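**User:** I keep going back and forth on a fold encoding question. It is easy to fool oneself when nobody else works the same problem. Could you pick a protein and write out its sequence and tokenised fold? Could you put it straight underneath, so I can go through it closely?

**Assistant:**
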Amino acid sequence: MEMLIFMLVLTYAAQTYAVGQCPNITGKILQRMPDLDKKMYSYKIQINVPALSKTLDGLEFYDHVNGTVFLFLDQIKDGKRCSNKVMYDYQNNQTFKVNEITKQCDVSNLTSTIEQMSLFGAGVENGPDSVKNSFLWNAGYNSTYEGNVTVDGIITDHYQTCLTFENNTVTYLVDVYFSMHNWTMPAAQRAPVKLTLQALTTAPNGTTTSQAYVYKFSDFHTSNATDSWTPTRPFGMICKGRKDKPRSEIKVYSEQHTLKFEVYTSLASSTIVTAEIVEYYDKINNFFRVDLMYGQGESAFHSKIVHDFNQGLAFNQTSSGVCQITPIPINSSYIDAEANKTSHLVHLKQMGAFVDATKPAYGGLGMYKGIAADIWIGTKPVNAPYGVFYPGNNEYLYLTMYTANLNGHGTLIGIDQTVISEVNATTNLTVKQHLYAYDSGRGINDLNVFDVSQCYNQSLKTTVVMKFPGEQYHQILMNYPSFQKAIIQEVGKQAGLPFYRISSHVFVTSTLELDTDSQNVTRLFVWVTLLGVPDVQGDSETMVPQASLESAMSKLKAAVADNFIVTFNTTASPISLTALRNFLKTDQELLAPPPECPDTPNPPAAKGLTTGETVGLAIGMVVLGIMLSCGVMIWRGRRSNRQYAYTMQD
């Protein structure tokens, strides 16, 4: 490497004051040059080579505690700027070389003298040595003290040493200038100020050539400096063969997971679109949902997409109230679906399958949004016809992913993504997205996450009412989410329906009525809505045949007539309730007017609901109507103010 000409100084074992070109030191006092900080120090350095009319700018950092040496060089080579970083990682026995211009990173073992590029460190001829011993700045050589010299206005102590190499055919005459003992420096005392090197080489024919080098130091800092800078190993790039290991894994997913992103999308026209994404992944129940929100005011857009992999159905809802039910496409834009190998159906991918497909490589440890994160680099071609922006054309995805150990486990905290799409044979579209995961958690805590009742009109719904004893009414109110979940699961189980065909709007009312002994007792009326067979748009080949409402009602009536028991959890212990047998009515049956009676002087007494039933059901219908109306308004209101954009996550 060409720059070694300027950098290999004091790197080989030498014979001090040997014969050759060294000056006569008879009568001079031998002294060690000042030692630099034993823990950590850094400085900027300018290297001047007068004979070549060339200057290099550099920065060196020595970390004796953590076993790291860092060197940065900036120069002009062949008319082009060349910026290189070299890091010696003694903890992992590796050397990084990074070209800052081309962003190319090479890794090699720290076992060869060829790898030695430090300006003032000892070599590694005998294998990798500890940085605590190898990189003593003056290498332990004795010097002669030459008195005080003023350098750039700084009064310095001048030291001189002479070294010979290769059977006395190479001589280094080195003059080093340190700030004098009582000179105040910003970050440290006894700082290196200047070094000059006169290199003399004697050829076999006796001809001697000379080369001069001048090193000027500035911005010297030690471990005691409050503004000291600590470099890191290369990050945000692939360094093949690196030995340092990540602190968190890229596979940070679970069977149930929630991810929330802020998304910033940059188009080729420099247009930036800000959006939000919320994803719910449930491998246990085979559901996937993504919400997309962007825009504000009248231009705001919000969509909710739920994929039911049990039935092969996709529910697509928008803030305008429009909902479409279709089969889940195999080429789903959300990369959650995959075709089964043994049937025409699709299945939910393992969370992280898309990330795995990019074959992510570890890219080092860096900072992301103020968090120390492991960085991963991945690439994936998306072949036609599964293009996202231009379906039918090829696409290429380039991803940088950030993970960190949060709350005791690996967590995805951000993604930088570039999508390059073929618009046509001569034009490509480049879209860059930055996804900041501001909330990520394991588990699905909200029972209503996969509710798709907004996709059903009234003709595809049936609301039923069951009656229960009222002794546990207070416990139901105190533990309502648990009771709601238990009712939905038990009704779906007995009716033979998937749970999403039981609306999440479950209502409970109470009333007093007379029992067989004419005593007032509390009864509970539980209102549950069954959703009908979905109206699927398009080819339904991938859809599993579903039970009709008539079939579901028949099964549910049989269950209530037999022994319908619902058990819900409380803070103390589970509670079980048994529905009163043979009481299962639809809202239509309850609201139907009584039949007209014949005009007779003494009409027979009307048979129907008790006074308590009538009052309880009337109150329940009023509450149900209010809650349903509010539910629609809340749903629309929330979606009128937020919106999501496209994501490529599982």
Q: What stands out?
A: Residues 363 and 375 are 5 Å apart (CA to CA).
